[in-house]
């Protein structure tokens, strides 16, 4: 049976409300306002980064939230440790996104140990951000409640595709009994639709909705002569 928080996301759009460090929009109030605007546009869930952002969005947005904490300069930086994951959950995320690859984690715990302890200590669900089919299968075996294609093209296992990695998405959706969420380089409504057609349980869109610097660059470059 699919958990209620995941069931609420099925077939819908999750909007990732994040800003890079030192950007003008890097502020919990701003990210919360973007999340509130996304709700009005039809989002079924929010993905957010950082404890202050997660906390404020949890207070003001009545949708399931996928929370994460980007920290460190190592390859594994998306909620890299159990301590990070528990803090994200305590801030209000119903689903915690963690690095779900097969790479070594900074605290020395395995992915399975991390997920087991999250499940033992909290009621939160775990979304494993993966970079390949092998990652996704391993994350399911480790106990993840859902997987996302977030890291495809960023771990060295897959060539970075122009748009979402539909091949990994199709294979994982076909072989895993848990939800597979499309995330990463979904820049157009057509691409989002293609993700659903490829078996995605839900689709995460961030940059194309919530990152005006990048969107402005796309348009500025298109009109430059």
Automatic annotation (TrEMBL):
Pathway as given in its UniProt record: Amino-sugar metabolism; N-acetylneuraminate degradation; D-fructose 6-phosphate from N-acetylneuraminate: step 3/5
One GO cellular component term: cytosol
Keywords linked to the UniProt accession: Carbohydrate metabolism, Isomerase
UniProt key word Transcription: no
Domain of life, per lineage: Bacteria
GO molecular function list: N-acylglucosamine-6-phosphate 2-epimerase activity
Enzyme Commission number(s) of this protein: 5.1.3.9
The UniProt record lists the keyword Isomerase: yes
Gene Ontology BP annotations: carbohydrate metabolic process; N-acetylmannosamine catabolic process; N-acetylneuraminate catabolic process
Record's catalysed reaction(s): an N-acyl-D-glucosamine 6-phosphate = an N-acyl-D-mannosamine 6-phosphate
PANTHER family, alphabetized: N-ACETYLMANNOSAMINE-6-PHOSPHATE 2-EPIMERASE-RELATED
Family designation: Belongs to the NanE family.
Database matches in HAMAP family: ManNAc6P_epimer
Function description: Converts N-acetylmannosamine-6-phosphate (ManNAc-6-P) to N-acetylglucosamine-6-phosphate (GlcNAc-6-P).
The protein's name: Putative N-acetylmannosamine-6-phosphate 2-epimerase
Originating species: Cryobacterium lactosi
Lineage: Bacteria, Bacillati, Actinomycetota, Actinomycetes, Micrococcales
């Amino acid at each position: 049976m699919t958990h209620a928080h995941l069931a609420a996301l099925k077939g819908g759009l999750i909007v990732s409300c994040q800003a890079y460090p030192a950007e003008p929009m890097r502020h919990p109030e701003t990210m919360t306002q973007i999340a509130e605007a996304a709700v009005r546009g039809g989002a079924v869930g929010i993905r957010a980064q950082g404890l202050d952002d997660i906390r404020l969005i949890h207070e003001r947005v009545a949708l399931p939230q996928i929370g994460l904490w980007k920290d460190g300069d190592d390859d594994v930086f998306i909620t890299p440790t159990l301590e990070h994951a528990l803090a994200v959950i305590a801030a209000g995320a119903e689903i915690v996104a963690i690095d779900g690859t097969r790479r070594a984690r900074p605290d020395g715990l395995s992915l399975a140990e991390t997920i087991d302890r999250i499940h033992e200590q909290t009621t939160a669900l775990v979304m494993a951000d993966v970079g390949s089919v092998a990652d996704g299968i391993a994350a399911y075996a480790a106990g993840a409640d859902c997987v996302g294609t977030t890291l495809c093209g960023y771990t060295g296992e897959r060539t970075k595709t122009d748009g979402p990695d539909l091949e990994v998405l199709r294979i994982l959706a076909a072989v895993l009994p848990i939800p597979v969420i499309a995330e990463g380089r979904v820049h157009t409504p057509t691409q989002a639709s293609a993700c659903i057609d490829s078996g995605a349980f839900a689709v995460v869109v961030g940059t194309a909705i919530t990152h005006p610097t990048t969107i402005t660059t796309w348009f500025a470059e298109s009109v430059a002569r």
